[in-house]
Amino acid sequence: MSSGNIKSRTANRILNQIILCSVAMLALVGGLGMITVWLRHQTSITANHLQAIEQKIVEERRIHAQLDVELAIAMSTDRLLELNRKHKLDLQEPAFTQIVHVEQNVEKRLYEKTANALFTASALSGN
After folding, report:
1. Tell me: the pLDDT tens digits for 48-103?
2. Is the pTM higher than 0.85?
3. Which of 13, 27, 84, 110 is deepest in the core (most CB within 10 A)?
4. Hey, is 91 helix, strand or coil?
5. Looking at the domain assignment, is residue 86 inside a domain?
């Protein structure tokens, strides 16, 4: 074999390796680009989903507040007296001494009542 032929093969081998590395790098960069685009798309989908959930939460809170107002109106003394007259129930108005106003936190009071009942039940059962 001639030395020119060996140099040509060595040059071809080096050129082939450079081309192979270039194609591999191009494929790697392209793959990373595709992964980046896919991740951004998934982020966008998730953000849109979260925004829809937040809008539903706001709407449910609005409905809840509206129902609280309607409930307060329905339970007002004037409304109850009006319904009593309208339906001719002949119910008597409660005396002032019969009305009990709760001034402490109702949730805390209910929790303490439940906790005391559970404690009493466990003490009676011997646990």
Report:
1. 999 999 999 999 999 999 998 998 888 888 888 898 999 988 888 878 888 777 77
2. no
3. 84
4. coil
5. yes
